[in-house]
Amino acid sequence: MECPVLFYFLLATISFETTTAISQNIYASENPLPVGSNVTLFSRINVTTGAWMFNSNIIVMIFPGDRIIDDTWRERVIFNSTTSSLTIRSLQVEDSGLYTLQALNFFRSELTLSVQVPISNVTLRANATNLVEFNDTAVLMCTVANGSSLSYVWLKGNTVVTASGGVQFSDGGATLIIVRVTRYDEGPFRCNVSNGISQEISLPVHLNISYGPSNTTMMIMPMKYIYKTGSNILLSCSAESSPAAIIRWMVNGVYLNDFSPQLQLEMVTESHSGNYQCLFYNTATSRFTSASAMIRILAPIAAVVVNHTGGRALLNEPFTMYCEVNGSVDNIQWWKNGQLISADNTTVFDTGNTTLTLNPVQHSDNGNYQCQAFNYVSNMTSSPYTVKVNYGPMKPVIIGPSMALAGTWVILNCSSASYPPSLISWYFNNSLVATTSKLEIGPLTLNMSGKYACMAFNKITGKNSTASVMLTVLAPVTMVSIKMIGPLPIQNHTFTLICETAGSVESIIWMYNWSQLYPDNTRNFTMNNTILTFDPVMASDNGNYQCVASNPLNSSTSEIFTLEVIYGPEKPTIMGPNMAMTGDNVTLSCYASSNPVSIYKWFFNDSIVANTSEYVTLPLTRDLSGMYTCMAYNNITGKNSTAYTMLTVIDPIMVHVEAPMNPPIEGHFYNLTCNVTGPTEHIYWLKNYEPLHENDRTVFYMNNKTVTFNPLEQTDTGNYQCMSINTVWSITSPPFKLLVNFGPETPIIDGPAFAETGHTAKFSCSAKSVPPSQYHWFFNDSTVANTSVFTTGLLSFNMSGEYTCMASNYVTENVSISVKMLTVIEAIESVMIRNNTVPINSENFTLTCEVNGPYDKIYWMKDNMYLNTSTAKANMSYEIENNTLHFTPVTMYNDGIYQCVATNQAGPHASPQYVLLVNYGPLSVHILGPDSAKVGSSVSLTCSAASQPDCDFDWFLNSQPSAIKTGSVITFPATKENEGNYTCKAKNPVTNITMYEIKAFTVDHASTFHIPSNMMLMVLVALSVTALFN
After folding, report:
1. What's the pLDDT tens digit per position in 972-982?
2. How distant, in Å, are the alpha carbons of 77, 485, 768 from that of 809?
3. One domain, residues 890 and 982
4. Domain Ig-like, which positions (predicted)?
5. d(C-alpha 469, C-alpha 604), whole Å
6. Which among 274, 430, 537, 613 has the fewest CB atoms less than 10 Å away?
7. What is the rounded radius of gyration, in angstroms, for the C-alpha atoms of the chain?
8. 638 burial via Cβ count (<10 Å: 0-12, 13-18, 19+)
């Protein structure tokens, strides 16, 4: 065909002009894709002037209103001018290449399309499959019958094979070469061939690699350097080898007739010692390997004994012990009292430690000695050998007193360090008096004083030693007492005490209040502390005195002498008030320090009024004011002393709080006045029993007599008192209750914002106020109530509106108003739960909430708890949809009390309680009763089933088709005719589920074969039962 001039112009423009003004993409409906399929190429922008090209050759020329398709493509392409898309049919491999969409002076976009042949018949073969490690090279070749653009992936098992040192690929990945194979190359190999549209995996080729023997090991159990005779030894050899290697055992170069991997040596002797070797040989690889170990066997030590040479162990003399051992010995150790012995200056071992010499023997060498012999397989310790060092006697030690009282007994003990123990002898004035270590002397007399000698003798060492002690006999102290010398102890006079004693006295000390008394400026001792003189005696010397007389062996203490110094009277002290009110009784007390106690007298206006230390006046009058005198007298010292006090009598004082006549109102001026009758110096105010202080509203006037509140506030309410104080007393007025009147504050209305037609609404109004407010309710400017609580009549829609509460206070003459808006809405008349099916376990079940009247939402309750589907337990499945509750399915766990609640703006409306009781079962059937009974006895069998509702029961005997009894209990006599298998049929009338249980019954004397009593036959029946019971 001929092309118009415009065609050639566009062609030249498209072929030689490229613009990059806007970047666009073209897309393929599928890429890559198989031979013979169709593809659509498209752009997201419509092209009105341009061309589609393939490998720079034009397929379609595009110009406004028309297009021109090249002849070679005309039968295979479809151009959509609306979307500028190009569809190519029956694609071939040659159609693969670069497709271009050129929009004139707008954009140029390219897409590479790949048309591929699907892969089929992938085959894998190897040059050889049985190979030797390190010797052979494996070559695996993968071929494909059909396919293009092939890609190869090699797999060993499920692991991808990658190129490495010994692994190579050739022929574009179609051939796998493994140079010098190893044992780790053994396994199944596959090749996975793929292109963009398909893939296929070859069947596996398994490479078998022969290797080894290598990594040869020998394990010896137990593992020891040397073994004891009689031991059992197990030698085990292993080597890595494929196929398994042949094993041979050798001992000291001689083959054993043993070809197993283990060699057992039992009850070994020393002749079993030697070099053990295991040898491996692989017949496929022709390679050898071996492992060896040295086995050493030794007999244990049989006996160990310690002996000694020479005589007994004597102190400072040499002593030798030797160790006798029966058996092979590598080492000997010596022990003393469980501690290892080391050589030192006095402890010497010979070569091999066979003998132990103590040179010289010391006291510290006493103890139990043992020798311990060792070889590689055993050690043995001798029985203890006791070394006892003989010595002494050392210088004797005498224990006993050096002085004693006449008439008593004395014990002297003599001891001397010696082994064996020494023989003891006692001498007095060179005469033998005892041959024992203890010498008892007494009763003592003064002529038994003198020297006592002790001699110790050791019959083994042949030595003796002597010591002595001097004993002095004294007379005891028998009497001590304290007596006064001269006049009584009057303060500031001289006073003397004497300590009288009997017996041998060497010293006297004086005690004052149980502490030793020492001389000072006023107290001194004479005649060897026998006399104690106070010059002068003072009141501070009062206390308990004792004297103690002693010698070196005993002492005696006198009875307590209590010293009470006579003094006084000192200046009296008077206790009592200086002022009192007429009519009172006043108590005046007088005290003057004195020993003995003073005698007291009271005087008023020089007249005696009392003879006691305490004086209580008559009821006071003003003429009893004056001076009261107290005189104290000591009848021993003959002295007296006086003091006086002044008493003023005044009239009584009265205090009370006065208030003005006008009531106290918040925000107004108010004052209180303290009215005091009698003398006062200060006035203080209290509020609620706490001090009242001035502030910017509370001010005191007239020396605190008046308190002013300006203005008065609610917080000023309380109990007020004024306190009058002078130098003698303080008097507080009775409490005055100030109650501030205020309000009413803004009322608070409690009541609903919404209510339903046909119902009532209740409103409560409250306002803070003193005294309490009076209330009035208004609706549409009309009074509807004169109380704080207002309840409407039955509501209708025209009763919506503002309800006003007015509170008023008759004292403050104030009023306050609040408004509550009530909206009357249509009522919910009823809420009910309905169900259309019977609730059966494991079946779907639905509850519907039927509401009569408009509502905003519905929610469900179970057992008085909100039902939340998002927190349902694993054994419960339900969902809420509109006004229905779906159980999918319902189960026994859903049992409970359900309510649906419909809510509107007026509040919730709950349905009556719906009790859901899910029908189930029977889940199990049980027959209770005997398995056998004596002939003629009565037998009862009871059938029970776990079911809701209760099941209907039928009884069958053996194979009889009809029931012999209905009901849960069957009773029959024990006869031959009634023997057999009793079947209980339990059927739930609601679920239509049937279950059976069989119980065999026999008569005792009968010899028949019967079914075990625990056999149970369970059959679930929905529409019918087994043919036996039809």
Report:
1. 999 999 999 99
2. 102, 99, 10
3. no
4. 118-202, 213-289, 300-388, 393-470, 476-564, 569-648, 652-732, 744-818, 826-904, 912-1002
5. 86
6. 430
7. 66
8. exposed
Judged by DSSP in three states, 9 sits in: helix
**Alpha-carbon gap, residue 384 to 386, rounded angstroms:** 6
As a whole number of angstroms, the distance between CA 645 and CA 575 comes to 9
Burial of 967 per CB tally in 10 Å (0-12, 13-18, 19+): exposed
Residues 545 and 636 occupy one common structural domain? no
Place of tokens 């205020």: 742
Examine the domain organization and report whether 100 and 11 are in the same domain.
yes
Which is it for the CA torsion 740, 742, 745, 751, positive or negative?
positive
- Record the tokens describing residue 866, joined without a space: 């909100």
pTM, full prediction? 0.39
Determine the pLDDT at residue 159: 93
Is residue 402 a contact partner of residue 350, using CB atoms and an 8 Å limit? Answer: no
Half-sphere exposure at residue 617, Cβ-oriented, CA atoms within 13 angstroms: 27
Q: What is the mean pLDDT of the segment spanning 731-745?
A: 93
Q: Which distant-in-sequence residues (6+ apart) come within 8 Å of 254 by Cβ?
A: none
**978 and 960, same structural domain?**
yes
The pLDDT assigned to 886 comes to 93
Are residues 353 and 432 both part of a single domain?
no
Q: What is the CATH classification number for the domain harbouring 22?
A: 2.60.40.10
**Phi, psi torsion values for 799, nearest 5 degrees:** -95, 5
Same domain, 69 and 109: yes
Q: What average pLDDT does range 385-411 have in this prediction? A: 91
Q: What range defines the domain where residue 362 resides?
A: 309-322+332-377
Give domain status of residue 387, yes or no. Answer: no
Q: How many CA atoms lie within 13 A of 44 on its CB side?
A: 4
Provide the domain count of the chain.
11
Q: Does some domain include residue 815?
A: yes
For residue 37, count CB atoms less than 10 angstroms from its CB and return exposed for 0-12, middle for 13-18, buried for 19 or more.
middle
Average pLDDT, the chain: 89
Which of 318, 416, 313, 321 has its CA nearest to residue 366?
313
Confidence of residue 9 (pLDDT cuts 50, 70, 90): very low
**Taking the alpha carbons of 203, 208, 209, 212 in that order, is the dihedral positive or negative?**
positive
pLDDT of residue 407: 87
Structure tokens at 151: 């890609």
Quick one: average pLDDT of 93-104? Answer: 93
CA distances (Å), 460 to each of 465, 669, 717, 997, in order?
14, 126, 115, 103
Contacts of 126 by beta carbon, 8 Å cutoff, 6+ apart: 138, 139, 140, 141, 189, 205, 207
Q: Which two tokens stand for residue 57?
A: 């050759």
Distance of CA 690 to the CA centre of its chain: 51
pLDDT tens per residue, range 559-587: 999 999 999 899 999 999 888 888 889 99
Here the contacts of 45-51 (C-beta below 8 Å, separation 24 or greater) are 45/84, 45/103, 45/107, 46/82, 46/83, 46/84, 47/84, 47/101, 47/103, 47/106, 49/10, 49/103, 49/104, 50/14, 50/101, 50/102, 50/103, 50/104, 50/106, 51/10, 51/11, 51/14, 51/101, 51/102
pLDDT of residue 1011: 35
Question: Are 619 and 639 in the same domain?
Answer: yes
Q: Label the pairing between strands 410-415 and 33-34.
A: unpaired
Q: What pLDDT shows up at residue 871?
A: 65
What is each CA distance from 251 to 223, 484, 900, 927, in whole angstroms? 18, 119, 95, 77
Tell me the average pLDDT across 314-318.
89
Amino acid of residue 1012:
P
The pLDDT confidence band at residue 52, using thresholds 50, 70 and 90, is very high
What tokens appear for 981 in the block?
């298998």
CA–CA dist 799, 786 (Å, integer) = 19
Are the C-beta atoms of 402 and 471 separated by less than 8 Å?
A: yes
Taking the C-alpha atoms of residue 624 and residue 604, their distance in angstroms, rounded to an integer, is: 9
Q: Which of 51, 27, 52 is nearest to 39 (CA)?
A: 27
Partners of 642 in the β-ladder: 631
24 belongs to a structural domain = yes
Question: Measured in whole angstroms, how far is the alpha carbon of residue 462 from the centre of its chain?
Answer: 78
